[in-house]
Hints:
Chain A is α+β, with helices and mostly antiparallel strands. Chain A has helices spanning 3-17, 43-53, 82-89, 93-102, 195-206; strands at 22-27, 32-36, 67-73, 104-110, 117-120, 135-138, 142-146, 149-152, 157-159, 162-166, 187-193, 213-214. In chain A, the strands form 3 sheets. In chain A, strands 10-7-8-5-4-11-3-12 form an 8-stranded mixed sheet. Chain A has a two-stranded antiparallel ribbon with strand order 1-2. Chain A is globular, with a radius of gyration of 19 Å. Chain B has 2 domains: 2-167, no CATH class; 180-307, Cyclophilin, CATH 2.40.100.
Amino acid sequence: MDVNTRVRALEFLIQQKGLTGVVETVPTFSSLLVYYDPRAVGYESLCAAIAELVPQATTGVLPPARTVELPCCYDAELGFDLATTAARLELPIDELVRLHAGAEYLVYFIGFTPGLPYMTGMPERINIPRLDTPRTKTPPGSVGIGGIQCCIYSVESPGGFWILGRTPLRLYDADAAEPTLLRPGDRVRFRPIARAEFDAIAAAVAARTHRPVIA
Amino acid sequence: MITIADAGPQTTVQDLGRTGQLRYGIPPSGPVDRFSFVLANRLAGNPDTAAALECTLMGPRFEVAGPLVMAVTGADMPLTVNGRETAGWAAIALAAGDVVKLGAARNGVRSYVAFAGGLDVPLVLGSRATYLRGRLGGMEGRALKKGDVLRVLPSTAGRPAARPRRVTVRAIPDYSAELTARVVLGPQNDRFTDGGIRTLLGDTYEVLPQSDRMGTRLRGPRIEHARGHDIISDGIASGSIQVPGDGQPIVLLADRQSTGGYTKLATVCSFDVWRIGQRRPGQTLRFRSVTMAEAHRLLREADALLETAVREEIA
């Protein structure tokens, strides 16, 4: 069992048991940040309570994962690094897209900016070092790869990932009742779409009539 | 009702912040100076959680539509009501049509303006706090601008105007005094040389103008890493002292990123985080290491000071 599953299982157990003094938790790839109120619980006793849960923190305790389908347009304009990435990986563009879209990804944590998922599950063949010089602005929805990870930019921000495409869905929408689309532990599948469908979904998202496909 | 005639460079609505959203990448927000914020609410007769204004470097000018009790705390911004100088750190009874103005801060960075009842903006994810970068909460997710109209919730505190409150002289911070912020080392102190740790704890750091609600950027002697400045990204606490490759520390505040990939040498104790948020660009500060047990004892002392800070005047 991988370390991230144990992190998420431990977080789930801490929330479920409602440990005294715990304010909130932040899972990342291999660690769990636990915010607590030292007025309500001492450091040693909280550590002991958490340590007791660690052996139980296994895949079995986690609720079934959601699978979220993300439409993604892999064209040269939206996936502005597609050609360079393909050249660098010595792959035809079609093959790069096929490999990227063919995998199932796991959101192992959300961080950096609101709703930005860090995902594993990328085929080894398309692993690639991050950009030497990060770009200063990456449009929201941009789907990028770097190292062994895939991420999706949730707001316009700097970034060091190679951009292969863009999803018309909003990973972060300040005006929605639930502003972030993805959660830690979600499974993600990309569905390649043409530019016309991208534009149609983007319009539906803007009109708030689009419902993401979540199973 | 409050009508903003002039908003100042960055005036936002804040409450004590939102919890439970960091795991989705959304920071708590809330006041950078929690101490002054809580006192403003207590002066106004509010619960600590009520929404109030945070003003940055220069305050707003606004008019109130009806009688209202207000309290101003934090940075020393010259305060006038209808042009007449008025003292801060006290409850002030306003009448319909009164015009309040907070000028440029002479000391400190952020001041807080609370109104009896608290500001009425929609709750977003359980909080009224503004997260500017995420355009979330507060007044449409943004800083106030000229012409904004803010509503005030009905006050539950009875008639606070009849019992004027003020903060005791002893509890009012002196932002021009030297500052030594208490820190607990970790979580990545093992990624620094002994010399690097001594640099942070022994030298003086200057606050840079690029500082904001996300973090206070500091400049000073380079803090030496033992092996690399990158880590597998992990969570960032309030007060985390992040040291990237250039060896210059950043203290992370209310609007911080939820996770990050730079080493964190120490964490500023919660009871000192607000002091750093009140440091002006060019001011300096130092750090001192305390144990976890000492930090918790100091927290109780800070709580006790807060409990006795507001006094009701005897008529």
